[in-house]
Specification:
The chain has helices at about 75-85, 100-110, 115-125, 130-140, 145-150, 155-160, 170-175, 215-225, 265-275, 290-295, 295-305, 325-330, 335-340, 355-370, 375-390; strands at about 5-10, 15-20, 25-35, 45-50, 65-70, 90-95, 100, 185, 195-205, 205-210, 210-215, 230-240, 255, 280-285, 310-315, 345-350, 395-399. It is an alpha/beta fold. It binds flavin-adenine dinucleotide and NADP nicotinamide-adenine-dinucleotide phosphate.
Length: about 400
């Protein structure tokens, strides 16, 4: 890659440094460490990855994410090209105007692991009259069936099912596809603690549908296809607008981060330790089983005796007959948690947006009501308005 930064002359004549790399022009980072955090027997595959940012000009602050482009599985791309009956070396021009091939284009530039609506229309135009066409027209006639159909199928599934349709050219097939988009990962390191690096904690998306194993575009690539010590992962830094540590080093912080939601809190804790923060740090962490899914166990447990982490509450959801989640631990510690909040602590939540964040939100309102002696309405107002909007002490990074 070229220069580290582009120099821009501003209106007042000053020279400002602007990162040369961005979402549109990602930096090709080297993966320098790759470890499995979940142990054999786990239902999950979660990895600790270290990417080298040396030469990118990137800086980041705890709370920021790294945008990463993935790559489709080579075996899937090869099967797709075989089904299309096209030459893998079919010459194409990429967005930079460089000559490339159909295979390379399908590997990097398009979503291949999930079909879209457009392909169904493209196939319908190319299918001869007969049973396959009738079946496809049936699906296309019902919006819900289209959604259900494409939700679990990739292009290999679709082309196998409607194998009488033929795309004449690579361009005609590519015109049906959706361009690949980068994925965001919370940066799990403080830059000052790991100069020139960004650490990530990634749960790999793997599932089987229609008899074939499938994987995520970015997480599957990072786990299975990104070689170590090769500049192979296109990345950029995505700044967070609000998910930030307090400037006041004496302020307490409460962090709720089950699963990969722990990632930014690793950065928070490292940063607070380096800055010599006097405010206390309290972490709620959870995963399925303690024996196999306690991410960063050694490091986390070492932080308490060092005084880097003042309180650690753990919720292993599947180690007993009834589910225990982070919000259950919050409720058990309601009195103390309320004291911290009244004392001015910031409250952070990171991870699953669909279920966990709501459970934690409801628990916080219940704690405000029960411990603060507020009516349910006043407790909700305190959490939603005072903590979240006025004080900006309740901050979420959920996905
Ligand atoms: C701000 C932010 C921070 C994030 N931080 C992290 C982080 O630190 N760590 C982390 O791991 N992730 C994080 N994520 C999520 C991450 O960005 C990706 O969404 C995730 O890794 C999946 O991307 P992928 O490309 O691997 O999978 P994709 O190719 O996007 O595949 C995922 C899709 O596969 C399909 N799918 C999944 N399971 C099944 C199934 N069983 N059956 C059928 N279809 C299925 C679904 O359509 C799903 O949307 C974050 C997201 C945001 C927005
Ligand atoms: N877009 C994608 O395809 C994609 C891919 C990967 C991750 N993600 C997102 O990232 C999130 C984090 O994934 P992860 O694997 O790190 O962890 P996770 O799925 O959030 O699981 C972490 C812990 O949270 C528990 N949990 C489940 N439901 C909960 C609830 N309602 N309230 C509180 N805790 C609950 C889980 O318990 P049980 O499992 O025992 O119920 C588990 O112990 C996912 O949930 C998902 O939203 C998205």
């Amino acid at each position: 890659m070229n220069s580290i930064t582009e120099r821009n002359r501003t209106e007042d004549g000053l020279v400002a440094a602007k990162p040369a790399y961005s979402r549109k022009r990602p930096f090709w980072a080297k993966l320098t460490r790759h470890e499995r955090l979940t142990k054999p027997g786990s239902g999950k595959d979660t990895r600790h990855l270290v990417l080298e940012l040396e030469g990118s000009g990137f800086t980041y602050t705890p709370g920021d994410s790294l945008g990463a482009y993935g790559s489709n599985a080579p075996a899937v791309v090869d099967e797709l090209i075989r089904l299309l009956g096209l030459d893998p070396e079919w010459p194409l021009t990429d967005s930079e105007g460089d000559i490339t091939t159909l295979r390379n284009t399908l590997l990097r530039d398009y979503t291949v692991n999930r079909a879209n609506r457009k392909i169904l229309n493209g196939l319908a135009e190319r299918l001869p009259q007969g049973a396959q066409r009738d079946q496809l027209m049936d699906i296309l006639g019902n919006t819900d069936r289209v959604r259900e159909y494409i939700e679990t199928r990739d292009y290999v599934d679709v082309l196998r099912e409607f194998d009488q349709a033929k795309f004449e050219t690579a361009e005609a097939f590519l015109a049906q596809l959706t361009p690949a988009a980068p994925r965001l990962y919370s940066i799990a390191s403080a830059l000052e603690a790991h100069p020139g690096e960004a650490h990530l904690c990634v749960t790999v998306v793997r599932y089987t549908s229609h008899g074939r194993p499938k994987k995520g575009f970015a997480s599957g690539f990072l786990a299975d296809h990104a070689d170590l010590f090769v500049q192979a992962v296109p990345v950029y830094v995505q700044e967070s607008r609000s998910f930030r540590l307090p400037h006041d080093l004496a302020r307490d912080i409460i962090m709720v981060g089950p699963g990969t939601g722990f990632a930014p809190f690793r950065a928070f804790i490292e940063q607070r330790a380096l800055a010599g923060a006097t405010g206390r740090n309290w972490l709620f962490f959870g995963e399925q089983h303690r024996a196999t899914d306690f991410l960063y166990e050694e490091e986390l447990l070492s932080w308490k005796p060092k005084g880097v982490l003042n309180r650690l509450d753990l919720a292993f959801s599947r180690d007993q007959p009834e589910k225990i989640y982070v919000q259950h631990r919050m409720l058990e510690q309601a009195k103390e948690l309320w004291k911290w909040i009244v004392n001015g602590a910031n409250f952070y939540v990171c991870g699953d947006a669909h279920n966990m964040a709501k459970g934690v939100h409801d628990a916080l309102i219940r704690i405000a009501a029960e411990q603060g002696g507020l009516s349910p309405e006043a407790a909700a107002e305190f959490v939603n308005v005072t903590l979240m909007r006025t004080d900006k002490r309740y901050l979420r990074d959920v996905y």
